[in-house]
Each structure stands twice: as C-alpha cells, then as structure tokens.
Write a structure and sequence with these properties.
alpha+beta; Jelly Rolls; 2 domains; 5-stranded antiparallel β-sheet; 4 helices; 27% strand
C-alpha cells in the first residue's frame, strides 16, 4: 500500500508540466505574430531564403520563450515551498511597486571577442593587433543580442565585413530586429567592409532585449587556404537610445 503523506496542496510535478505547455504555447504565439508582421516581405523572397528566415523566426520565438521562462524560474528558485505557502501577495505588492527597477543603460557596445558578446551561429573570435572579429557560417543565420535600453527609438551600428575580400552588394545582407527587417544605410571603409546603421523603433514590451539576426550568403576561399564556408564577419555592434516615447 503506498505511503500517504500530508499534502500542502502544491503539486509541483503538475506545475512543471503546465509550465512546459505554457512555454510551448508562448513560443508558438510569438512565432505566429512575427510571421504575420513579416508576411509582405517574405512573400517576395526566393524560396531558400524564405525557408531559412522561417526557421530563424521559430528559433527566435523559442529562445525568447525560454529566456522568459528561465527568468521566472530563477526568481522562483529563491523561495522554498514554505515561503510560497506563506506569501501574502497583497502585503508584498505595495512595497514592490514602490521600489523602481534599475534604469537601463542608454548605450551599449560590444566587440567580437568581448565576454559580453552574446549570439548564435558564429565561429570562435579571431584577432590581431588588439582588434577582434567573428565569422558567421556555423548555422543558416547568425544573431547578436542587444540588452534592453529602455523605451524609445534606438540607433544601431554594425561594423561588418564580407569574407575573402568579397565586395558588398545590394543583396549581400539582411538584418532582422526581433523578426522585422531593418532599413540599412551603408558607410564603406573598403569595398568588403563598412558600417551598417539603422533605426529601430523599440519594443512594445518593457524590458525586452533586442535580437538581431544577420542573413548573408556563404562564400568559399578561391585560393583554398581557408576550407570554411563563411558568411558575414562582425567586428563591433553598438546601440544608442536617441529618443524616448512621449508619456
């Protein structure tokens, strides 16, 4: 006969299963919203690029849902079962509301080899003479995460390079900001390297990081010295809040 134990009414296993279902639903909803916003732009793209972007959209939605779940889990793990049973939300809520969160930074800059560089789809950072860069090509697309800078318009700059001194062309780069394509301006330093700038209107959800996804064709080394197929190279990414939303 199974041993009966006293129950405090909290079924933690059921709560975990429910949390997994909520995460999956959140990722699906995020992906559907991004696809709906991008539908006019995606319809005119070649099928291989459209399929790659569809995959990236799903990955962005999944990562965003997992990041939010991880944040909530980190908060919850600070409390034990007894603490949860004794929490009086009405007693805690006024005090929490009186304590404002720390203000987000107005500017962020990261270089390829910095510890703060967070992204996906990149080779290990390379460098010379105190400078560093990374090549994409380990995945169909590469990403860079920019932390939340608060409400308002954000000016973005990306110092980028094409591999093997391949010149930039009009169709050589697409950048998505949280799933939406950016209108890019290019300031060349050399035919194969330059600074891309754009304005991003900001997120409707406070505290949301910006995920930049970079799509660029892979290029092979015609000399055969480098056997990798490489996409875009990144030296630096920066973001600066230039306007706040009116209250």
């Amino acid at each position: 006969m199974p041993l009966e134990t006293a129950s405090d009414g909290l079924d933690l296993l059921a709560m975990h299963d429910a949390g997994g279902a909520v995460d999956a639903a959140a990722a699906r909803i995020r992906a559907e919203a991004i696809r709906e916003r991008l539908a006019p732009s995606l319809s005119g793209l070649p099928l291989p690029l459209r399929e790659a972007i569809e995959g990236v959209i799903g990955e962005i939605a999944r990562v965003a849902a997992e990041a939010e779940a991880a944040r909530q889990a980190a908060v919850e793990t600070r409390r034990e079962r007894g603490d949860w049973l004794q929490i009086d939300p009405l007693r805690h809520m006024p005090e929490d509301r009186r304590t404002p969160p720390p203000a987000p930074p107005a500017r962020f800059e990261v270089h390829a080899a910095d510890p703060d560089f967070v992204g996906y789809g990149w080779h290990t950072a390379e460098g010379r003479g105190g400078e560093s860069w990374r090549w994409s090509g380990t995945a169909p697309a590469a990403s860079v995460v920019i932390p939340d800078l608060g409400p308002g318009t954000v000016e973005l700059e990306l110092d980028l390079e094409r591999p093997f001194r391949t010149p930039f062309t009009e169709d050589a780069l697409v950048v998505l900001a949280n799933g939406e394509p950016l209108e890019l301006s290019f300031t060349p330093r050399e035919p194969h390297r330059g600074v891309f700038s754009a304005l991003w209107a900001g997120s409707e959800s406070p505290g949301t990081n910006l995920g930049l996804v970079l799509l660029s064709p892979l290029v092979s080394d015609s000399t055969g010295r480098d056997t990798r197929q490489l996409g875009i190279g990144i030296w630096r990414a920066s973001a600066r809040r230039i306007a706040a939303d009116p209250e």
